[in-house]
TrEMBL record:
Pfam families: Ku, Ku_N, Ku_PK_bind
Species whose genome carries this gene: Aegilops tauschii subsp. strangulata (Goatgrass)
Subcellular location: Nucleus
Keyword Hydrolase annotated: yes
GO molecular function, one term: telomeric DNA binding
Residue intervals of the Ku domain: 274-415
Domain of life (superkingdom): Eukaryota
Region (Disordered), start-end ranges: 507-556
Protein name: ATP-dependent DNA helicase 2 subunit KU80
Length: 705
């Protein structure tokens, strides 16, 4: 079980923080929601400073520590903890964050003592008020004393300084910042400064994730030059919470019911539906041309490449020769082995030489013994700007030739001058880009990745909390902080409205005559053949009535040709798939692309046509034609990157018709011809693995407890 965390929130509610109290309350409530989802055993306390009242143990025992209020003692996080954040008082006294830190430190030491629980302080303040002088020594000495106690009890602190843009710095704020950064220099605190509610939401972490090494060993520059390094994950994607299946089959009186759903799979042969195939009679097979090659697990283990663990430097390259678009997956950080002075000096010398020469290193990495794959990547120097933090490297995985997707697009320079933008149009587009620059000169970058939370995750936690109280509640509107992430800043848009209008005036929209003609043909093409036939019959009747006399019978072959044209119209005219050559009609529809939805219409038409063929086939007389249509549809869905369209179509058709004996033979035909579901290896967007695709037509039974 993961070690529980003890957290004390130190919140500044002094006069200068009144405007930000609602944002502080929102971000702290969000933190507690996340703990209720993932870390239900964590304990949280709340301390307010800058209040009119004074209520804390140190004030009663020692005196002093005024205007510090313990709003909630350290307890397991629950609804009561959240209620402590409701209606934060507007303090009337200047906030002294050093007093608040000491009170929070005292609470953690008394609660956890020498236990192994993780302990953390989280300070949110604007640090604008003058701190009181200590009874002895200087304020820096007081910081050193506090830092010594924090190190002794392994307590860390997150300091979030929230100052809105436009606040003028003064000597008091500079002194407070210096004291906070002194905590950081003592390696007991992390200090960040934010100026927006959105950044404040991203700066407050649910938990400090302790770094775990993915590699410890030698960075082998040559056989005689090796540097001891540790590798950590620098970034890692935050996965969406996994929703667990819940069973209500247990009796209500059973208090110890787990309500867990267990899934068991039974594999049965399509030829012998009542016989279960045991594991020792199942084997994986791999497609090789038209045949399936079975490979046992023992053979597969023998074939696997099992490299030796290690990190080897292959050489150096110019930084400009490796574009950032080649970087794959997460970023790792290479640091010298802690406490190893020689390794620290060697890494620093190598990193600074690479920085000066604008070079990067190419590495071959095997993180673990007998690892199945080899990581091939680029090592970029990271020169530290903090005295007590050594230089290091960032490592990004590079693609192999099979991983690169080259999409050739025509350049503007290859187009005629009439198709290229004018100077006025180019200037209008340039102004739009400058207007929406998230890092304008002289200002802090907006939506920095370090402080920008995932709006999908934040909205999920908020809704989950609401559903726990109101089961029938609808999703609430998007929070204002999250709206700043998902939508452009309305103030910027309104302020720069003339630039946007100028952009619209610079690009005059005209109707393309070729497109107009294509749309006209498309409208004609989508006339229903039945309506055409009825219209022809009505016109013929009107013509006969008007003439008042019978006409000579036409050539029977011409009449038959017209009937075929009405019943089976060509794709170029009506955009339908006919019986004469359905695959050719389908391919013609795909090639037309006269509108953005043409491909989707072609796929839908082919799905309808193949369904009719399968359903209306008598003793398999249309199965060969249906097989050709399935092959063409599958190929098109792979090319157009629409694997789900094909997979869902086949799955639904199979589920609907699998009990029809005659139709089962058609699915056996598909299986024998390897016309299976589209798997990930064929289309990256597919959710179907190769094994799932091969075993799709095998019956599966799922039971739940």
């Amino acid at each position: 079980r993961a070690t529980r965390e003890g957290l004390v929130l130190l919140l500044d509610v002094g006069p200068s923080m009144h405007r930000a109290l609602q944002e502080v309350k929102n971000v702290c409530t969000t933190l507690l929601r996340k703990k209720l989802v993932f870390h239900r055993s964590d304990e949280v306390g709340v301390v307010l400073f800058g209040t009119k009242e004074t209520h804390n143990d140190l004030a009663r025992e020692l005196g002093g520590y005024k205007h510090v209020l313990v709003k909630h003692d350290i307890k397991v996080v629950d609804e009561e903890t959240k209620n402590a954040l409701e209606n934060l008082p507007r303090g009337t006294a200047p906030g002294d964050f050093l007093d608040a830190i000491v009170v929070g430190l005292d609470m953690l030491i008394k609660r956890f003592g020498d236990t192994k629980a993780k302990q953390r302080l989280c300070l949110i303040t604007d640090a604008q008020h003058l701190l009181r002088d200590p009874p002895q020594g200087t304020k820096e000495d007081q910081v050193d004393t506090i830092a010594d106690q924090m190190k002794k009890h392994d307590i860390k602190m997150d300091c979030i300084v929230f100052r809105e843009s436009g606040v003028q710095h003064n000597s008091v704020m500079d002194e407070n910042d210096r004291l906070l950064y002194h905590f950081r220099d003592r390696s007991v605190a992390k200090v960040v400064q934010v100026d927006t509610p959105t950044a404040l939401l991203g700066a407050l972490k649910t938990r400090n994730v302790l770094p775990v090494t993915i590699f410890r060993g030698d960075l082998e520059v040559s056989s005689t030059f090796k540097i001891k390094v540790w590798a950590y994950k620098k970034t890692s994607e935050e996965k969406f919470p996994t929703l667990k299946k819940y069973s209500d089959k247990a009796p209500p009186s059973d208090q110890f019911a787990s309500h867990e759903v267990k899934v068991d799979y039974e594999y049965k042969s399509i030829l012998e539906p009542d016989t279960v195939v045991p594991p020792d009679q199942r084997i994986k097979g791999y497609l090789y041309g038209p045949q399936v090659v079975p490979i046992s697990s023992a053979e597969w283990e023998a074939v696997k490449f099992k490299p030796e663990k290690g990190v080897k430097l292959l050489g150096f390259a110019d930084r400009s020769s490796i574009p950032r678009s080649y970087f794959m997956k997460d970023v790792n950080s290479f640091v010298p082995e802690p406490g190893n002075t020689k390794a620290i000096v060697a890494v620093s010398a190598l990193a600074r030489a690479m920085q000066e020469m604008n070079k990067v290193a190419i590495l071959r990495c095997v993180w673990r013994q007998n690892q199945a794959n080899v990581a091939f990547g680029v090592l970029t120097p990271n020169i530290s700007s903090v005295n007590n933090v050594p230089d290091s490297f960032y490592f990004n995985i590079l693609p192999f030739a099979e991983d690169i997707r080259d999409f050739p697009f025509r350049s503007f320079s290859s187009l005629p001058p009439s198709s290229q933008p004018t100077e006025e149009q180019q200037e209008a587009a340039d102004n739009l880009v400058k207007m929406l620059d998230l890092a304008p000169p002289g200002r802090e970058e907006i939506l920095r990745p370090d402080f920008t939370p995932n709006p999908m995750l934040e909205r999920f936690y908020s809704y989950l909390d609401l559903k726990s109280k109101q089961p029938d509640a609808n999703p609430p509107p998007l929070d204002s902080c999250l709206r700043r992430i998902t939508e452009p800043d309305p103030d910027v848009i309104n302020y720069r409205a003339p630039l946007i209008q100028n952009l619209g005036k610079s690009f005059e929209l005209k109707e393309n005559p070729k497109r107009k003609k294509a749309r006209t043909q498309e409208r004609l093409a989508y006339t229903d053949p039945d309506d055409q036939a009825k219209s022809s019959e009505n016109n013929a009747e009107k013509a006969t009535a008007a003439d008042g006399q019978a006409k000579k019978p036409e050539d029977p072959y011409a009449e038959k040709a017209r009937a075929i044209e009405v019943l089976f119209p060509s794709t170029e005219k009506v955009g339908k798939i006919g019986d004469v050559n359905p695959v050719k009609d389908f391919e013609a529809m795909l090639a037309e692309r006269s509108s953005s939805i043409w491909v989707q219409k072609a796929i839908e038409e082919m799905k309808k046509y193949t369904t009719n063929l399968v359903q209306n086939s008598l003793q398999g007389d249309y199965y060969e034609k249906a097989l050709e249509c399935f092959v063409a549809l599958r190929k098109a869905c792979i090319i157009e990157q629409e694997p789900e369209e094909y997979n869902q179509f086949v799955t639904k058709l199979y589920e609907r018709l699998k009990k029809v004996d005659d139709v089962v033979k058609f699915f056996q035909l598909l299986s024998s011809k390897n016309v299976l579901l589209i798997c990930k290896e064929e289309a990256p967007d597919s959710d179907v693995t190769e094994e799932m695709a091969r075993s799709f037509f095998m019956k599966t039974e799922i039971s739940s407890e």
